[in-house]
Every structure is written in structure tokens, then in C-alpha cells.
Design a protein that fits this description.
The complex is a heterodimer. By secondary structure, chain A is mostly beta strands. In chain A, 0% of the residues lie in helices and 48% in strands. Chain A has one domain. Chain A is built from no helices and 10 strands. Chain A has a 6-stranded mixed β-sheet, with no helix packed on it. In chain A, strands 2, 3, 4 and 5 form a 4-stranded antiparallel β-sheet that branches. In chain A, a hairpin with a 5-residue loop joins strand 9 and strand 10. Chain A is globular, with a radius of gyration of 16 Å. In chain A, 36% of the residues are buried. Chain B is an alpha/beta fold. Chain B has 13 helices and 11 strands. In chain B, the strands form 2 sheets. In chain B, strands 3-2-4-7-1-8-11-10-9 form a 9-stranded mixed β-sheet, with helices on both faces. A two-stranded antiparallel sheet of chain B has the order 5-6. In chain B, strand 10 and strand 11 form a beta hairpin. In chain B, helix 1 packs across helix 2 and helix 9 crosses helix 10. The longest helix of chain B is centred in the N-terminal third of the chain and has 16 residues. Chain B starts with a strand and ends with a strand. At the A-B interface, strand 4, strand 6, strand 7, strand 8 and strand 10 of A face helix 4 and strand 5 of B. Strand 6 of chain A pairs antiparallel with strand 5 of chain B, so a sheet runs across the interface.
Chain lengths: 135, 400
């Protein structure tokens, strides 16, 4: 039955993608609910789709986290056509031999749990596009 | 109002585990020692700025007054993440500079021994019914699901990003930065940890967030530091010995992070540090080439690398070659973190931004004993708190 996105900037459906709040004045992009633009102070925003493919520009492999957070996992930043996105890298072994800075990745959605009403929450990560590239 | 503000007295406590002392004991110890070091008493002090991040709403300044002197002066309790100590000092400096008083005191204190991760809070059990909350409308905690909120993980990415942009920064390079600071710490009796560590020991230790292993992370510990600052006019009236040991604050700068693409995705610790450094060099009328020593915010080994560049100690993009040339070791041309840095001296958060200034002053006064950088006359101290706030102070030895 129903699905809800993990965050409100994740759009589900046939072509899942992320949306950003773009400042109508200076085009700065944000993922959170806005009061005004941190870059220019304007208050008008429009929703823009963020490309679903990008390049991994930095990462860490978290081996030690708060209780209840499964480790290890790869946390990183993906440059999606000029918009930076924070996400986990999924579908990739969490070791430095398999993660490569600059590797091409694409958005991947997956269920993270089901609530008491039978609703699935859908999370997201980015997976390597060509796993053969990994050494 | 062009008169400089000077450090008259300054001290730090031994960093480490102090189970028998509470926060006020540590703050009192540092404050009383700083007053004694400057040859003044609480009766001379016109403003108190106090920082303690873990109890930011506790009125630590007034609690301190109740132990060492309730003289009725204004107290500013400050909190600015890991830049809290520098912010307290800067508050006292501003008050003296503004002519509100002749003498001010700044105190930073923290009890953190045994603390674990300081961010990326506990993951609560997911609720019975998905309910969006917060600014991202999230239905579940995001730490670990959408990247990491832990400090070791955030700063790991900051170092890896630099490596991606300019090349040459790998696990071993970051570990060698840590090796340097742990080697430096062996000469610092006030450091929480003063054990030399081999590259193999550092790289083989517990991984926290690749590429930061445990000894590459700042050490949580207890500690306090305090400084008494004085106007130049007042200093002229003091004894020759006080004047001789006084250290000039040639620059005192605090910045926050200006908006840039990606800065709300991964904190950008670079631009605000670069801005603070540029302003500090301009204020002080010195350049990076004039510095005899630098204490910078190596909260993680990955952070030290990027701050070589941000503080303009090297050319843009050249931090890896700069480190590899050996100049940041204590026998190099620009020693960095001769105290052992946060990785071994320890990081009692609110104390750090004053303790690093104490370290620089210690050398400028020629009182650093075994770890003295000979002939040191100009130094720089840098801290950064995520969120973000950056403090940079340039310090100069008294002329005579």
C-alpha cells in the first residue's frame, strides 16, 4: 500500500528524483524549508528537479557511529550537474578499494522500513553506474 | 583607539582526566593562575567572558565569580562551538578596545573526558507512524541514512575533498600528519597524551571514519585556559617585568561561513578560515612568511591539511607538497602544532581557543622549555567551530 519519502525533497513515482528549493533571484539551491535565501536574502523560491546522476566528490567510510546506526557505510557528497547532494553511497563495498573519488553514480531508492499502518518509508542513496570501473 | 590590546597573563591547566575537579574547579584554577601570571587580581578586571559549551546555559561566568571574586563586573557567557574560547577572548579584547575597561579576562573550560561522539545523536526507534518533521520533512533520523553527522566523518570528507581536488592526499599522508603531532606532544607536559606513535600504530588503530583512525581524532578530555588582556595605555603604567612578558595581540578576528554552493550540504571550513586569515594578516601587518609558529585546529588529521592552505601557509592547492617538505615539523621553517595539537594535547572544546594562544605566548615569552621554538617573535593561533565560526589571532613578542 502506501509509500512516503524519507525526506520531503525526495519525489517518488516512476522516475524518483530529488527536488531543490531554488532562489528565484540568485538561483542558489537548498534542500530544506526556507525562510529566505542565505545567499541574497530574497524570499521567493521555486522547486527544481536535481539530475539523478552525478559524480562522487568526497566520501568517508563511517566505522563508528551512534548506537543503532549500522556501520560501516559510505557517506559522501555527489555533484549532480552543479548541485551538491549529501547521501550515502550504496551498492558498493564499504572499503577504500571499491570507493573511488570521481566515480559516476546514480540515484537509487529503497524501502527503509514499514510503519504500523503498513506504509513503507523510501530512502535514497547513490550507486556506482559502472561497477566494472572499480579496481 | 588605535592602541593595541595585550595579553598580560595567560595559562592553561593540564589537559586530561580530572575526575576530582568539577568544571568550576578547572575554570578557577585557570583564572587564578592567569591573574597571578599577569600580576593582577579580580579587583583589576573590568569584564569577564566565559565559555563552556557543554553547559552553555549554566552561567559559567557567574559560577566562576562566586568562587574567585564577585566584583559586580559584566559577564558575557559565550558559546560558539569549537571556537568558544577564541570567542571569549575576542569578547574581552573588544571590550578593552572599545574603552569600556582597561583589563578584561577570558576563560574557557570543558569536562569531556570519556565523552564519545559529540554529534550524530542517538538513533531513536522509528515511530509507529511515519510523520514528517523538521526542515527536511524527514520521517526518520537522517544520520547514517543521508550521509553522516559525526565530526570524524564530516572532517574526513573535508580532507578527502581536498585530495580529490588537488591529488596526493591519501590515508598514509593524513596518518603522517598525525604522526608529527603525536611526536611533538612528547615535549608537552600539559598534553593529555604525550606518546610518540609510529605510522604503523596510527594506521593500524581503530578506524573511526576513513581515513581518520582514533589517534587521528582530537582527544576528548578535561581542561581550562584563561587569559587576562590589558589596554596599551594601562600596560605602560605597569612594572617592567609585566611589560616584558606581555604579548601583543596584533590581530583578533572572528568570521562565519559565507554562503557558497554546497556549504549547507557539507560544511565549508575553508572560506571562513581563509577570510579570517586574510583579515588577520592585514590587521597585524604580517604575512604567513613572518610566522615563527602556528597552532591550528587539527580536530582531525584531515583538517590540518586543508588549513595549511586556508591559512595561506602554502600556495593554493599545495598543502600536500608543503607537508611533505617537512616544514611543519618543529625543526622546520614553519612549525605547526608544536603543542601536539588537538590530536594529542587534547580538545576540551571551550578551552582550546585560549590554550592554543597560551602555547604561542609561551614560545614568544621564551618560556617553553624543551619545546621552545628558538627566537620565536610572531605566531598565529586558529580555531574553527562547525556551524561555523573561525577565530584567528596573531600574536607578537613585546618589543623590549
Amino acid at each position: 500500500m502506501g509509500q512516503v519519502p524519507l525526506v520531503d525533497y525526495l519525489v517518488l513515482g516512476d522516475d524518483p528524483h530529488l527536488v531543490a528549493n531554488q532562489c528565484a533571484s540568485c538561483k542558489a539551491r537548498f534542500f530544506d524549508r526556507r525562510n529566505a535565501c542565505a545567499a541574497c536574502g530574497a524570499t521567493a523560491f521555486s522547486a527544481v528537479d536535481v539530475p539523478t546522476e552525478g559524480e562522487l566528490v568526497t566520501y568517508t567510510i563511517v566505522a563508528f557511529a551512534a548506537p543503532g546506526v549500522p556501520v560501516p557505510f559510505i557517506a559522501g557528497v555527489i555533484d549532480c550537474g552543479g548541485t551538491s547532494v549529501r547521501a550515502n553511497v550504496v551498492g558498493c563495498e564499504p572499503d577504500p578499494e571499491h570507493v573511488r573519488l570521481g566515480m559516476k553514480v546514480r540515484l537509487k531508492t529503497f524501502p527503509i522500513g514499514t510503519d504500523g499502518d503498513g506504509v513503507d518509508a523510501i530512502g535514497f542513496g547513490f550507486e556506482p553506474i559502472d561497477t566494472k570501473e572499480a579496481p | 583607539m588605535s592602541d593595541s590590546v595585550w595579553i598580560l597573563g595567560i595559562t592553561m591547566t593540564k589537559f586530561g582526566k580530572s575526575p576530582e575537579k568539577d568544571v568550576i574547579d578547572l575554570a578557577s584554577e585557570a583564572a587564578l593562575a592567569a591573574l597571578a601570571d599577569g600580576g593582577v587580581t579580580m579587583k583589576d578586571v573590568g569584564i569577564l567572558a566565559a565559555g563552556n559549551l557543554m553547559n552553555a546555559s549554566a552561567g559559567i561566568g557567574q559560577q566562576l565569580q562566586k568562587q574567585i571574586g564577585q566584583t559586580g563586573i559584566p559577564v558575557y557567557n559565550v558559546a560558539n562551538a569549537c571556537a568558544t574560547g577564541a570567542t571569549a577572548l575576542r569578547t574581552a579584547v573588544m571590550a578593552v578596545k572599545a574603552g569600556e575597561c582597561d583589563v578584561g579576562m577570558a576563560v574557557g573550560v570543558e569536562k569531556l573526558a570519556g565523552a564519545g561522539l559529540l554529534a550524530g545523536g542517538n538513533r531513536k526507534a522509528d515511530g509507529d507512524s511515519w510523520t514528517p518533521s523538521g526542515r527536511y520533512g524527514s520521517v526518520a533520523p537522517l544520520d547514517g541514512r543521508v550521509g553522516t553527522e559525526t565530526m570524524p566523518g564530516v572532517f574526513a570528507q573535508i580532507g578527502m575533498e581536498y585530495g580529490h581536488r588537488y591529488g596526493g592526499a591519501d590515508f598514509e599522508l593524513f596518518a603522517r600528519i598525525s604522526q608529527k603531532n603525536h611526536a611533538h606532544s612528547t615535549l608537552n607536559p600539559l598534553a593529555a597524551y604525550s606518546k610518540k606513535m609510529s605510522l604503523e600504530e596510527i594506521m593500524g588503530d581503530v578506524m573511526i571514519a576513513y581515513p581518520n583512525t582514533r589517534p587521528m581524532c582530537s582527544a576528548n578530555c578535561d581542561g581550562a585556559a584563561a587569559a587576562v588582556v590589558v589596554s596599551e595605555a594601562k600596560l605602560r603604567m605597569l612594572d617592567p617585568d609585566q611589560r616584558r612578558r606581555a604579548v601583543k595581540i596584533s590581530a583578533s578576528v572572528l568570521t562565519t561561513d559565507p554562503w557558497e554552493e554546497a556549504c549547507q550540504v557539507l560544511p565549508n571550513v575553508n572560506t571562513l578560515t581563509r577570510n579570517a586569515a586574510a583579515k588577520a594578516y592585514e590587521q597585524a601587518g604580517v604575512g604567513p612568511e613572518d610566522l615563527d609558529l602556528v597552532e591550528l585546529h587539527d580536530c582531525f588529521a584531515t583538517a590540518e591539511l586543508v588549513h595549511y592552505d586556508n591559512l595561506m601557509l602554502c600556495e593554493s592547492g599545495g598543502a600536500v607538497d608543503f607537508f611533505n617538505s617537512g616544514v611543519t615539523w618543529r625543526d622546520g621553517s614553519i612549525p605547526v602544532n608544536v603543542s601536539g595539537g588537538l590530536e594529542s594535547k587534547g580538545h576540551p572544546i571551550a578551552a582550546t581557543g585560549i590554550a592554543n594562544i597560551w602555547e604561542v605566548c609561551h614560545h614568544l615569552r621564551g618560556e617553553a622549555g624543551d619545546r621552545q621554538i628558538e627566537g620565536a617573535s610572531v605566531g598565529l593561533a586558529h580555531v574553527i567551530g562547525l556551524g561555523s565560526a573561525c577565530g584567528v589571532h596573531v600574536l607578537e613578542k613585546a618589543a623590549a
